[in-house]
Write a structure and sequence with these properties.
One of its GO terms (molecular function) is transaminase activity. The protein is an alpha/beta fold. The chain has helices at 10-16, 26-43, 57-68, 82-93, 111-121, 144-150, 199-206, 239-246, 258-274, 276-296, 323-334, 361-377, 386-395, and strands at residues 49-54, 74-79, 97-102, 125-129, 131-132, 137-138, 154-158, 177-179, 192-197, 312-316, 349-353. The longest helix has 21 residues, at 276-296. Bound molecules: pyridoxal-5'-phosphate.
Length: 396
């Protein structure tokens, strides 16, 4: 019951034991095409270029930024937690001139703050997190794409923690590139990063296309020198090459991580069978029950609750309580894992998730009962049954 990774859905576990097939086997290429179509629905987009980057979520982030951002270009990163800082660091490593705007952890940006920053910086790319897992905040993104486009910027969003548990609309919100992971609300393991790219983002990446020497008819012929400065500074994360691999050309690049593809496909099938809106509502309901439960236990919720992600809540560790000792008893006696946080919040809050397969009533009620028991063990005055009762009220 932490902020992810979470318990994997049994259907995804079963998918993981599917026999491997080669990357050009018609079964495999069929599933690649099917996975592209499934993730178009997950991301709510018509973007043809919707596929998987092999690697954990940060692989998707690196691939998007290194492929979109040319060295020296300005990138604006609005930071409201640990993962905004990660975007900043990755953009810096891409050689960008990075401009950061920050709000305190536990808050989000207003659209006006973002627009002012875009107007001042005039970036090529605005890179933002939707749900910053470190603070649990969910940044409103409606209208941000339009602001970016009006000022000639592309909008990149990391929706790893939020997708499938909170509304995320690629086309309606004008998002040019978005990357995710499976290990949060999608109910899978980490290791695959679904990505989607708008035609404008694809045009930028296409403009930087370079074919590997070993795939050219004459590997020894010099590349056009003029193309080299713009060449994407990573081979593995060169999305022009990865797009060629996922296209009908099937141009050789990496060896597709078949088991992760099976997982990603099953996660999307599960989500779409349930319905994206229904899944978001499920996360809202169980998140609201967990929120009511921890509040009824007398715990103080961290941050702007109105902008909290549905799928995770951060609570302040009560004064004088050893947060790690509480986590350890929950884990070893109750078999329940909850998280703490990073940087300024390390050891100050517990983060309790209700996401993916764990966004269930029984998981919420047992976690609240366990937390109450452990808090009492540590001498915290809590009303017996208070957390569970408050959660049950939400379910009535
Ligand atoms: C919002 C967000 N972005 C990126 C990541 C990095 O994901 P990964 O550990 O899969 O690389 C995480 C992980 O928790 C995350 O929550």
């Amino acid at each position: 019951m932490g902020p992810g990774p979470i318990t994997v859905d049994p259907r995804v576990l079963a998918a993981m034991s599917t026999q491997l097939v080669g990357q050009y086997d018609p079964v495999m290429t069929g599933w690649m095409n099917e996975t592209m179509a499934l993730y178009r629905e997950v991301f709510r987009t018509d973007n043809r270029q919707t596929f998987l980057v092999d690697g954990t979520s940060r692989a998707g982030i690196e691939a998007a930024l290194v492929s979109l951002v040319k060295p020296g270009q300005r990138v604006l990163v609005p930071v409201f937690g640990r993962f905004g800082h990660l975007l900043r660091e990755i953009a810096e490593r891409c050689g960008a001139e990075v401009h950061v705007r920050e709000v305190p952890w536990g808050e989000v940006f207003t659209p006006e703050q973002i627009e002012d920053a875009v107007r001042e910086v005039r970036p090529a790319v605005v890179a933002m997190v939707q749900g910053d897992t470190s603070t649990t905040m969910n940044q409103p993104l409606e209208g941000i794409g339009e602001v970016c486009h009006r000022h000639g910027a592309l909008l990149y969003v990391d929706c790893t923690a939020s997708i499938a548990g909170n509304t995320f609309e690629v086309d309606a919100w004008g998002v040019d590139a978005a990357t995710a992971g499976l290990q949060k609300c999608l109910g899978g393991p980490s290791g695959s990063s679904p990505i989607t790219l708008s035609p404008a983002a694809v045009a930028v990446i296409d403009g930087r296309r370079a074919i590997e020497a070993g795939l050219r008819p004459d590997p020894d012929a010099d590349e056009d020198e003029a193309d080299l400065p713009d060449r994407i500074r990573s081979n593995y994360f060169d999305l022009a090459m990865v797009m060629d691999y996922w296209s009908e050309k099937r141009l050789n690049h990496h060896t597709e991580a078949a088991t992760m593809l099976y997982c990603a496909r099953e996660c999307a099938r599960l989500l779409l069978e349930e319905g994206v809106d229904v899944a978001v509502e499920r996360h809202r309901l169980h998140g609201a029950a967990m929120l009511a439960g921890v509040q009824a236990l007398g715990l103080t919720v961290f941050g702007d609750v109105a902008h909290k992600m549905n799928n995770v809540v951060a609570v302040r560790i009560p004064e004088g309580i050893d947060g790690e000792a509480v986590r350890s008893i929950l884990l070893h006696e109750w078999n329940i894992e909850i998280g703490t946080s990073f940087g300024p919040l390390a050891g100050k809050v517990w983060r309790i998730g209700t996401m993916g397969y764990n966004a269930r009533r029984d998981a919420v009620l047992v976690t609240l009962a366990a937390l109450e028991s452990v808090l009492r063990q540590f001498g915290v005055a809590v009303e017996p049954g208070g957390g569970v009762t408050a959660a049950q009220e939400v379910y009535r």
